[in-house]
């Protein structure tokens, strides 16, 4: 079950805690003492440590991860939180790719199903509250960067075809009064080295 075991009993200080983390120097280990040094000393505030581990900001020992350091960059912090939320609530996003838009009641029902009824109503409520509080701090609009890459591949394919077509036209060889029309079956590959070798051989032997 890819649902986090950690949650907050109160989310009122969540924005302030996240802001304080960004303004402070990253610790060697994110401990209760470090949190208290940021002036968050209540028992409910301490639960943020478990949540940060669920988000992949800290490892099991409390050591900041690469994701934690990326979060410190305020220009990308909302996207980093969204990334962590998608990982922490993996099964929820498998059920609904836009889980960040679900209502509170829908979230509770999804959590109940995903946990196979093993969580109490109180825990389900706190999970939903924590999830929605994190979503408010996150930016899911840039979650997928795959489409531009696909477009780039398509552009590369078009460019390859433009380079290949003139060579195919030149492959019509004339020897005296005889004409040869050479047709090539190109391999199904995107490796430019294959095409380079193929057309280099054509140039050497035909032109």
Automatic annotation (TrEMBL):
Residues 144-165 are annotated as: Disordered. InterPro entries: DUF5343. It comes from the Bacteria. This is DUF5343 domain-containing protein.
